[in-house]
Amino acid sequence: MENKESIKSTYFIVFILGIIETVLAFFGGPLVGIAVLIIALSLRSKLINAGEPVTNGVKLILIASGIHIASLLLWVFNFIMGFLAIAGIFVFFTSLLYLLIVFGVFITLIVACIFIYQEYSAIK
Length: 124
Known about the structure:
Blueprint: H1 2-23, H2 29-49, H3 56-83, H4 88-122
Helix pairs in contact: 1-2, 1-4, 2-3, 3-4
């Protein structure tokens, strides 16, 4: 019983942080994504220790947060290259790539939050 409550509360925390990461996807989301990734990994290990399968929502939020954090490196690279005014056309294309990645992460986070909420509400 205590284990189910722990898993349910961790689902709730991942859900709330996932919503925050989704809302801040284009501005500060990768920083929130670090917290989401750590707590989702904790939830994954709790599910494995309880003998339950890792659900699709947890898998999706792990993938989306990981890619979101990795996109932060691309953004930093673009910022430095743009600040130094080096390879303007290259910066344009990498900026476009960054926006496409973040848009994909945004959509994936929305779907992951829906799955996480359904999995949260299914725990009794």
